[in-house]
Amino acid sequence: MTSKTLSLTEKIYTYFQAKSLREPAILRELREETAKLSNAQMQISPEQGQLMGLLIELINARKTLEVGVFTGYSALAVALALPEDGKIVACDLNEEWTAIAKKFWQSANVAHKIDLRIAPALETLDGLIANGEQASFDFAFIDADKQNYLNYYERCLTLLRRGGLLAIDNVLWYGDVADTSIQNPSTVAIRTVNDFVHQDERVTMSMLPIGDGVTLARKR
Ligand code: CA
């Protein structure tokens, strides 16, 4: 069946990773360190990090946003793909997780590209808008508290330039979005943003079944 996205068995997934991943040692080490944490599942998959690096190269991104850093894997994947003068404004609240992130960013010699803001992300994003930085970012990645996803989406869309790219993580939410019996606030919030982006004429979009589901949306 080629008219449908393949379901990945463990065997196919192993092959897929073996023939796709070019994960640098520093990213692999960060993944291994993060795996020791109880909420390690919050980290993106390595194939998703690699895709984000490719997207950064494709659009020649220099100035990017990240909403939700955790232990810094996605920011590191993006930072490694950015040019030497590239920048990430990275938003998070958690000092403990971002301390791990900072350690690895320094080891990878990309710490100078990452401007970590420890504050509620909406405050940081609104501050950037108040500072006149709307339409100046090339790329944004949203991967934070799901109940604010729609708020993050609107702010990021304002901050992106025309042709800029937004990536929204966890849009399949372990499959829960497709199960209408599940009505917890995070699942409902993700369904809402999925419905919204799907009909939003301001973007060209595609939902990818990679990792936990990623929606790409290009600002028109
Ligand atoms: Ca995520």
Q: What's the name of the CATH homologous superfamily?
A: Vaccinia Virus protein VP39
Count of helical regions:
8
Q: What's the CATH first level?
A: Alpha Beta
Tell me what portion of residues adopts beta-strand conformation.
15-25%
Q: How much helical structure, as a percent, in the residues? A: 40-55%
Shape: globular
Ligand inventory: calcium ion
Largest sheet: 7 strands, mixed
Output mean pLDDT: 97
Low-confidence parts lasting 5 or more residues at pLDDT below 50?
none
- Give the terminus-to-terminus CA distance: 34 Å
| Whole-number tally of structural domains | 1
Q: How large is the radius of gyration? A: 17 Å
Question: Can you write the helix and strand succession as a string?
Answer: HHHEHEHEHEHEHEE
Widest β-sheet, arrangement of strands? 3-2-1-4-5-7-6
Notes on the structure:
- The chain is built from eight helices and seven strands; from the N terminus they run H-H-H-E-H-E-H-E-H-E-H-E-H-E-E.
- It has 220 residues and is of the alpha/beta class.
- The protein has a single domain (10-219), classed as Rossmann fold (3-Layer(aba) Sandwich).
- The protein has a seven-stranded mixed beta sheet, with helices on both faces.
- Strand 4 (137-142), helix 7 (149-159) and strand 5 (160-169) form a beta-alpha-beta unit.
- Helix 2 packs antiparallel against helix 5 (95-107) and helix 3 (46-58) runs parallel beside helix 4 (73-81).
- The longest helix is centred in the C-terminal third of the chain and has 15 residues, at 185-199.
- It is globular, with a radius of gyration of 17 Å.
- The mean pLDDT is 97.
- Bound molecules: calcium ion.
- Calcium ion binds next to loops.
